[in-house]
Structures are given as C-alpha cells and as structure tokens.
C-alpha cells in the first residue's frame, strides 16, 4: 500500500521543514506531493531543494490559485492507493495517519475524516471559527444524511481511485464542502476518527476567514440541488 500525502502550500516558510520531517517520521510507505501555490515568502525556493528526495514531488503553480486548485493539481500527480490531504502548517499531527488510513487499507471504508471534536484533549481556534465550523457541520448532516462532528477538518482520507473519480471544481477553501457533498451523494456515510489539533493564530499564518464559512454554506446548498 502506498499513501499519497497531498500538500497545498502557500507562504509556509516557517513550517514546511518541520512538517516534512514529521511526515517522513511516520512509519508508512508514502509519497509526498507538494503543490506550491505561488508562494512569495521563500517557500518556493526552499521546496526546490527537495528535488533529490526520492519520495517527494513538488509542483509549482505560476500564481496563487487557492487551496482547492492546489489539491486538484496534487490529485493529478498522485500514484498511491490511499490519499490524505495535509495542510502545510503544523495544526495537525501526521502520526494520526496510521489510524486514519487503516479502515481504507482494510477495505472497510472509502472515505475517513479526522475529527478534532472526537478528541476531548484538543483546544480549538477562535470562537467565530468554532461556531462557523459547527454550523457548516450541522448543515452538512441535515442536507446529506451524515453524522459528522467536524466537516471542515483538514484530514480527509480517501481510497485514491475513488477520489480520482470525483469531478472537483473548487479553487479555494470550498474544497471541503464540495468533496463532502459529492461523496455523500454517492451514498457513502463518512467515517470519523479522533485526531490531534494544535490551532494557530492569524498572526501565525492562519488564512481562512469567516467569508469562507459563508462560501461553504453556499457550496453545500448548491451541490444539494445539483445532479
């Protein structure tokens, strides 16, 4: 089994080295697909130095297109059996990969999400982000007959062939609601497992905003009525 780690990266010079060290330390057969989405802070130049690492592949967007566009590019280049989305910051713990991929590797699930809310030891980000995430999750459950606790989580894990079969259109943070809606419309009940979470502040580089929450609601409603 080969795990494809899909990393959209934009201006993450302060975290990219540590993140890659953490991922490489996970005892699982993996390829790391990094898409630099037009970084301007030195991330782009730093990533060019990883060309010689056998299991790392870096793709460069000429200009910033958004997280969703970077993930779509990464999907085009992955060769693994299972795929996981990994943000380029340090909010999530790569050691959680082992538990998250197991239900898919065992053939029991097609999709697994890592839930920050199933781990009572986690602290959470800004209150507005917490409330926004809960609203998006509740709406997802109501519209798509799911039982999720954390729809906007970064750690979304897929059978790779299944992920390739989903026609994604996202460019920005709407990747999460779009892929969730399209998975649910295939009749799949998404499995959740607890993960660790270490939220960072806006000053530390957090990029999502309340406007992305509004967009997520719109995307969920749109794909509920679209065939």
Automatic annotation (TrEMBL):
The keyword Electron transport does not apply. Pfam families: Glycos_transf_2. SUPFAM superfamilies: Nucleotide-diphospho-sugar transferases. Keywords: Transferase. GO terms for molecular function: transferase activity. Residues 4-157 form the Glycosyltransferase 2-like domain. InterPro entries: Glyco_trans_2-like, Glycosyltransferase_2, Nucleotide-diphossugar_trans. The keyword Transferase applies. CDD domains: DPM_DPG-synthase_like. This is Glycosyl transferase. It comes from Spirosoma radiotolerans.
């Amino acid at each position: 089994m080969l795990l494809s780690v899909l990393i959209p990266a934009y201006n993450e010079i302060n975290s990219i080295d540590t993140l890659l060290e953490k991922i490489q330390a996970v005892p699982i057969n993996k390829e790391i697909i990094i898409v630099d989405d037009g970084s301007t802070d030195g991330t782009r130049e730093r990533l060019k130095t990883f060309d010689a690492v056998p299991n790392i592949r870096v793709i460069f967007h000429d200009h910033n297109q958004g997280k969703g566009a970077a993930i779509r590019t990464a999907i085009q280049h992955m060769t693994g059996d299972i795929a996981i989305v990994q943000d380029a910051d340090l909010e999530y713990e790569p050691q959680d990969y082992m538990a998250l991929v197991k239900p898919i590797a065992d053939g029991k699930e097609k999709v697994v999400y890592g839930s920050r809310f199933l781990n009572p030891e986690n602290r959470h980000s800004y209150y507005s982000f917490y409330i926004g995430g809960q609203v998006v999750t509740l709406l997802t459950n109501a519209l798509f007959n799911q039982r999720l606790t954390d729809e906007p989580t970064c750690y979304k894990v897929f059978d790779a062939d299944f992920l390739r079969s989903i026609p994604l259109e996202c460019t920005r943070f709407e990747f999460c609601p779009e892929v969730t809606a399209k998975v649910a419309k295939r009749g799949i009940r998404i499995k959740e497992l607890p993960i660790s979470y270490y939220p960072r502040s806006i000053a530390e580089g957090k990029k999502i905003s309340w406007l992305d929450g509004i967009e997520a609601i719109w995307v969920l409603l749109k794909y509920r009525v679209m065939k």
